[in-house]
Amino acid sequence: MKVFCLGGAGRIAREAILDLVQFSDFETITVADVNEEQGQAVVNWLDDPRVNFVKVNVNDREDTIAKMRGYDIVLDGTTIALNGLTASLIAEAGCHGLNLNGFGDEDPYHDVFVQNNKTFIAGFGAGPGVTQMMAMHAANKLDKVDTVRVSHGAYRPFAFSKAITETTCYEYIPELPTRVVFENGEYLQVPPFSRPREIELPAPYGKNTQYIIPHGETKTLSKALVDKGIQLVECRGTWPQPNMRLLKALYEYGFVRNDEIEWNGTKFGIMDAIGEYLSQSEEGQNTELYGYALHVEVIGWKDGTQYQYIMTHTHPASDGSVEGWEGLRAYTRNVAIPAAIATDLIAKGHVGKPGILLPEYAFDPQTIFEELKKRDLYIHESVSVLSEEKAGASVSTL
Questions:
Q1: From CA 185, how far away is CA 333, in angstroms rounded?
Q2: Domain closes at, from 68, 90, 122
Q3: Which residues contact 77 (CB under 8 A, 6 or more apart)?
Q4: 76, 91, 122 — which closes off a domain?
Q5: Which contacts qualify for 67-72: CB closer than 8 Å, 24 or more apart?
Q6: How many C-beta atoms lie closer than 10 Å to residue 245's C-beta?
Q7: Are residues 279 and 193 in the same domain?
Q8: In terms of Cα–Cα distance, which of 328, 337, 335 is closest to 160?
Q9: Is residue 10 situated within a structural domain?
Q10: Strand pairing partners for 73?
Q11: Is residue 294 predicted with pLDDT exceeding 90?
Q12: CATH code where residue 59 lies
């Protein structure tokens, strides 16, 4: 089997490639990137005979498709802005595929994947990805599901890469159509910093206020759970508190609209300029606490009793006490490892359905959890019986 890792020189993608080197049976693992210097550096770092480098520019459509052809699967680690383009390239090349974001620009290419009998998963990392597996694990134990609340704690610098800067700025565009909640059968668009809710994340992250964010889980879970009577799906998130304070101020003063201004005869978006500054500043490149924490609440009914499931996720410490998880790698590996696991499962035929699929329909949650456990990533489950008051809880690690 052969895997083509698009954008493979990126901070997250290279960690996915490392996982494929350590755990998969791929015979060829290609780092594909427009940056030859960085791509070759990844090859040298991995130091494995199965790993090679191919220079590719996705704006050169014919060349990119030609280079992808013959590969079993493409792991797409490029930015949100490229998702539609790269999905079209993967579809035409006749490969399976997966990306990290899943914001919907991939959907027009569903029929091409079906025609080629290939599978594409739009959005599989920590979240979207593992979050849907956590929600479905709980939902599968219930007859009816009323509520799902997905929460992310992404503890990383504001702008450690251009792709992450783009993601950060994108999620707080004031009129963003994908920032929605699902409520009583409808998708309701909400502004940034909507529906604040205190979320208790596992140590060392603790309790912080989280707000609605534009993530694929809102739409995928509302579709996957329609037969269980789902009434409410909300997706929230937080970054380190200095980042959140900065974003709130930028939002309140209108900067996140990215209005065009002129300076010394040059026109540019003001938020683009701020993002560029942060990508070059110490404050934008560092944060005090690194890592990723997931929290999923599922409320529903089984045999006439109402239950609340709280699913959380933990990972090795970022303080240098665990080799390979130091600092920023505690964030990037939490995103990259699930993507690598899903890539390997698709290539091995574990999905078996063509077209663009929701993660909920593609994978068995327990299979994902078992693979995560091999990498010291753990999913924890707490179950409470709900009546007028909470009537006690049981806790387990899956």
A1: 36
A2: 122
A3: 5, 6, 7, 8, 10, 12, 13, 16, 99, 100, 339
A4: 122
A5: 67/4, 67/32, 68/4, 68/93, 68/95, 69/93, 69/94, 69/95, 70/2, 71/2, 71/3, 71/4, 71/28, 71/30, 71/95, 72/1, 72/2, 72/3, 72/96, 72/347
A6: 10
A7: yes
A8: 328
A9: yes
A10: 3, 96
A11: yes
A12: 3.40.50.720
Same domain, yes or no: 90 and 169: no
- Taking residue 288's Cβ as centre, other Cβ atoms within 10 Å add up to 8
Q: Which domain holds residue 13?
A: 2-122
CA 351 to chain centre: 19
DSSP string, 279-336: HHSHHHH--SS-EEEEEEEEEEEETTEEEEEEEEEE---SSSSSTT--TTHHHHHHHH
Q: What is the mean pLDDT of the chain?
A: 94
| Residue 20: its H or E element | helix 11-23
Whether residues 198 and 232 fall in one domain: yes
**What's the whole-model pTM score?**
0.93
Q: What share of the chain is helix, strand, coil (3-state, %, to 5)?
A: 35, 30, 35
115 Cβ partners below 8 Å, 6+ apart? none
Tell me the residue type at 290. Answer: Y
Q: What CATH number has the domain bearing residue 282?
A: 3.30.360.10
**Can you read off the two tokens belonging to residue 13?**
């993608």
Q: How many domains does the chain have?
A: 2
CA distance 109 to 111: 6
pLDDT at residue 393 in the model: 65
pLDDT surpassing 60 at residue 359: yes
Residue 356 domain flag: no
One-letter amino acid at 227 equals: D
pLDDT of 161 strictly over 90: no
Please say whether the beta carbons of 363 and 332 come within 8 A: no
Tell me: pLDDT of 305 over 60: yes
pLDDT tens-digit readout, 192-209 = 999 999 999 999 999 999
Asked if 28 and 98 sit in the same domain, the reply is: yes
Q: Which residue has the tokens 């990508």?
A: 279
Judge whether 87 lies within some domain: yes
Q: Rounded to 5 degrees, what are φ and ψ at 176?
A: -60, 120
**144 and 178 in a common domain:** yes
CA dist 247 and 253 (Å) reads: 10
Q: Are 91 and 234 in the same domain?
A: no
Question: Do residues 114 and 259 both lie within one domain?
Answer: no
Measured CA distances, 307 to 91, 141, 183, 225 (Å)? 42, 10, 20, 16
Are 164 and 292 within one domain? yes
Contacts of 159 (CB under 8 A, 6+ apart): 165, 168, 275, 278, 279, 281, 284, 285
